[in-house]
Amino acid sequence: MMLSAVAGAGFVGLSSGSVRALGRHEAVGAVIDGMVRDHGFQGVAAVGRDGRIEHVRSAGLWNIAQNMPMEPDRQMGVASISKRLTATAVMRLVDQGLLFLDEPITRWLPDYRADTGSRLTLRRLLSNCSGLADAFMPAVRAAPGLLAEPWISTGEAIRLFASGDLIFEPGARFDYVLVNWVIVQGVIEAATGRPYAGAMRSLVLEPLGMRHTTPIKPDDAASYRTVSPPVEWTNPRPPFLVAGGGYYSTAADLMRFAHRVYDTDFLSRMSRDQLTAIEVKSDNYALGGRMRKVAIQGVEVEAAWDTGSSSGFRSVLGHRLDRQGTVVILNNTAISQRVMDGFAEALLRAHAADHAAAA
């Protein structure tokens, strides 16, 4: 196999003794080897098609203090990939006639302030262009203990952090603030009459067989500011922030999610189209995640592109909308998002090269 198809991305290298392989895909393997060598990758990388992993490798340690090896089925924080999970639940409720993207949120949250609530819609919240002022981060900086307060329900969090004035007209520009997702979580709870976590289980996780996707951090999971020396990086995530970034998942669960949501009739055709239509061109942002053009074998391929960054966890879920490949990367060592995106693109190119060589 010629490695020129992936060498330009800078992720080609020799094998590392800390890497274990399942399957034999030469170009994909070379990209992963290079990531381990050049960037100290510590995590799980997988590529596949139709919801099935065709090649997966794990590298490094899941928990350094306990000398626990990384394994392909480890659960790690997926941070903002949670937004696309949440957006999928919203679209299922749209398909059921319980939610509408362009209705004022006061339809479901009648106690929300009328002057701004009448101008806020799920479409604007899901695409992070609501115009809401972020009252959450200033409150946490003033009182860090808020993150550990068990009494703050979703409704109370909306009142405290997500009911401020609008700082720009909804839809005018992109503003990546967590308060958007606190409201989305509240709307899901109001529409279903269930706590958010239970609604997500019945709407998305259980139907898709995502048995290892949960808002509960695995006991031994750890992420790191530095590996040598190992310095753990913690980031408490209260229940009212789960919709925007609180899930832990595995490569297999995310691979299955991407295929079922983007390729099948799990959602209606209209909802699939809505989920991947760019709402904010400046950031290529759709509903709950970005879209991306990836150059593969001389063609620009459109992909749903979800990324996550929380404490030391970094993640990418990239799915080709032509159904020819999916990549999942989960990492626990605070590698830059730019490097993670480059790694994911290189894996999709290598995956295509391996398939072409085998044809």
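(the above was protein one; protein two follows)
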Amino acid sequence: MVTHVPSEAHGDERGALLNFIEAQRGALRRSVTGLTEEQAASRPSASALSLSGLLKHAAETELSWLRMAQQRPNERMNTENAYADSFRLKEGETVPAVLDFWDGVAKQTEEYVRGVPSLDDTFPLPEAPWYPKDARVSVRWLCMHLVEEIARHAGHADIIRESLDGKNAFELLAMAHG
């Protein structure tokens, strides 16, 4: 899991963007290191957020943005309750399964970003009250938004994890690297 993206590691703009996305994924993924399913699902504050819910939400949100860019329907967001359900594991879902799912989404994201002719290529945003009418964004914007989205939730995860057992990001990084 990438934690620091050195300037020489990415090679080009696409590589840099993908490495920064992966660094934020790693920060969020590390938040569940050494926890049980119950601990990962717990909500140690007034917030409704849990670590396992944040993992699932980040993975499903990345898939949603990828499907928008590909102009394909999102198979995971097919019910009225899908957004709310993205913040919690449902019956039969586990942290390892969510992490595996996210690995697959990450691979698809990388293939898409590496495969588009230009980071300036644009795609339309769906009609929604929170998007301007006929809004379009570029693949570069998509990558920057994924960094922003995942980093926001990695910060939430830091606070939740410290509330659970006092472990901070540096301790989790040490645990992850043995």
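Reviewer note on protein two: The first helix runs from residue 13 to 30.
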